[in-house]
Amino acid sequence: MNNTTLSRCGLGCDLSDLSYRYGGKMSKFISKQSVAIWYALTALLATFIVGQVILWCFPDGKGTGSSLLFILMNCIPLIMAAIFSLVLSEVKSLGDFFKKIFLQKESPLSWILAIFIPVIYYGISILLMNVRFTGNSLLAFFLYFPWTFLYGGLEEVGWRWFLQDHLSFSKHFIPKMMVLSIVWFLWHIPIYQLPWITAGSSNYLIFYLMILGNTFLLGALKEYSKGAVPCILAHMLIDSLAVLMLVQSSLTQIILLVIFEILVASWLVAMRKS
């Protein structure tokens, strides 16, 4: 029985067509997953190397060189996303890369969620009485806000816009976010090993849980976004509001916060797919 006979017997297509369609899907799956693995490893290694250079050359964190290397450290996820996108011909040029990141027409809902997510993060923390108000003025927030574009915002290009899209090992949102949260947590470790960095928590369990909750919220936002700008905005707001109020390192409250974040994010994604 040849391929033509199989097709005429009601199987719908010949074997060559079957091989092409399913083989193409499989190769696409392997390709995307391989890209995700290599991207994560490269970004983590590059961040570790730059962190070590800073520690060796600028142990006190003073000097222009230290500041420039620290900015580079924070921009590594974006830089690696650009390199991988260009090498893999996912974008035509560097200009096309930045156009896809910054110039996409986003839905009104994505902008609403970009504001809503920081409200969820801090609002629930306030309800759980796990926030310490710093006493800084609102002016401090506005002065710090532009800096968070470099120190936090731009990393969203790598984690949400690039890596989240290439995590094709599962169609389900929760497993993908669990993997992404681990990568994001590991990436932060060389940054928080710099002696002058005081953000975050010295308790790695609590710090991972905080990363986990934000991974779900920002990941859900990316499901509603074409580019990276809504996620960048949400990340900048979360970091900037820390000038006014700090989420405390109380394990019980952090666990409750993370559970709520995961539930909200999962609901948002389910609504998006329904």
Provide a compact summary of the structure.
The chain has 274 residues and is mostly helical. It has eleven helices and two strands.
Write a structural description.
This protein has one domain (33-273). A two-stranded antiparallel sheet has the order 1-2. It has helices spanning 3-11, 15-57, 64-87, 94-102, 108-127, 138-144, 155-166, 173-192, 204-223, 229-241, 251-273; strands at 131-133, 245-247. It is globular and about 50 Å long. The protein is 73% helix and 2% strand. The longest helix is centred in the first third of the chain and has 43 residues, at 15-57. The protein has 11 helices and 2 strands. Helix 9 (204-223) packs parallel to helix 11 (251-273). The protein is mainly alpha-helical.
List the helices and strands and how they pair.
Blueprint: H1 3-11, H2 15-57, H3 64-87, H4 94-102, H5 108-127, E1 131-133, H6 138-144, H7 155-166, H8 173-192, H9 204-223, H10 229-241, E2 245-247, H11 251-273
Antiparallel strand pairs: 1-2
Helix pairs in contact: 2-3, 2-7, 2-8, 3-7, 5-9, 5-10, 5-11, 7-10, 8-9, 9-10, 9-11
